[in-house]
Each structure stands twice: as structure tokens, then as C-alpha cells.
Amino acid sequence: MNKDLYTPIEESSHPRKEKNNKLKNKKKKLARQKNELLQKLADPRKPKTAAEKRRVAADRAALRDAAAQRLVEPAAINDDDGRLVGVARRVDTIELLYRRKQITSRQRSAADLYARYSHAVIGALPCALDVSRVRGGVGPGAPSEAQLRAAQELAAAARVLGMIDERVIYFVVVEGRTVEGCARAIFGGDGRERLAKHVGLRLRCALEVLADHWYPSARGGAVRGVRYAETDTRSAAGVVERPVVAHATATRVYGYDAGRKKES
Known about the structure:
The protein has 264 residues and is mainly alpha-helical. 52% of the residues lie in helices and 9% in strands. It is elongated and about 130 Å long.
């Protein structure tokens, strides 16, 4: 038996396979060129010397520090008596949520109204007691009507919201904290992502409750009653007086009554 018949035959390369390999290599080359071009566009001035590398590293560190500063908790502004009068905010959480379309305009309006009411009643208790923290001083007086109305609205909002949601609203809207900072203040710890998502959900739900409380919509079919004074349209008998015009001099007074001149 001839053994040459059983010798293995080398496989010849298939033309279609060679074509596919060429296409793959061409795609890889194009992808590599594209990445190099994007890197050049992102950083056209690639540092060459050690000084330029240090400068670029310093600029990037400054950008990271600036980004970190925007995440720092806001600083409270107190008056001479130690009362909170404002908050120095770097980023307004409510405005940021509205720009991201995570809350509606009704919810943002409710947050603004809650902030105005809260700032109106800040320091109202020392005024009501007529006591100042400065020794020898006197308080500015009793709370105004606007402060009393703001206190009533905040009390009604607290009954609607509940304890936890009221704290969430106060921390974010009044004190200007971030959602992560609010999660750290309520639950402690480092404000993990799960707790931050939970606080963000409660914040949006609480703002919706406030919006329904202060700006009731017609979706639920509920109508809030409004008290107003009725207009009195009853007629009553009266006396029509005739016009009287008087002219006076140093010695006399002349009266003109209904077209008849008389002296007095």
C-alpha cells in the first residue's frame, strides 16, 4: 500500500478568510488613528519638558480642588446675637434639581415659599419675649403680622409633612445642604449612595406634598374653600345736600348757596 496517499495535505489559505483578516486589521488601524486624533484634540499642547508637565499637573490639581470646593457644605451666616440670617451657598440644591428636571416648577415654588416663611420667623421668639442676648439691650419688639402668619404656615406644613420629611426640607431648603449632607445629618455615617437616594426620594415627595398643600391642583377634584367678605348691595335712603361755596375777605364772608348769593 502506498503511504504517500496518506500524507497530510497542507491547507491552502482561503481568499475570503484573507479578505476578512485584512478588513479587521484595517478597522483596528482606523480605530487606533481615531484615538490618537481625539487625544491630540483633547490636549493639543502635549507637555514635552518636565516644567510643562509640572504646570499641567498643577492646573489639573487646581481644577480638582475647585470641584471639591463646590461640594463643601454651605457656611451659615449669623448676626451679632448668633441667630441664623442667611446661608452662603455654593450650589443651590433645589435649583440644581430643577435644572436637571428632577423636580417641577410647582415643587420649586413650594421650596421657595418654605424658605421665605422660615427666614421670616428666624429670631421671632427672642422678639416675642422682648429679650436680647446682648446684656443691657432690649429686643426690637413683638413679632410682626407677617412673622405670625409665616409661623402659622410653617406649623401647618409640619403637620402635613411629618417629622423626617420636615427635617429633610429644612436641611436642604433653609440650611442649603446637599442631599448627601442631609443623609449624613439624619442617618449618620458618610452619606452612602443608598441613603442619599432615599433622602432624595423623600425630598421630592415632601416637595410634592407642600406643592399640593399650598398650590392645590384640580387633578384630585378637591377645592379649597376661601373666605371673603360679601359685598353689601343694599340701598338706603339719604339726603342730597346742595353745594355751598364760600368766599371770604378780611371783613366779610360771602356764601353762595344753590345760585343764591347771601351775606353773613
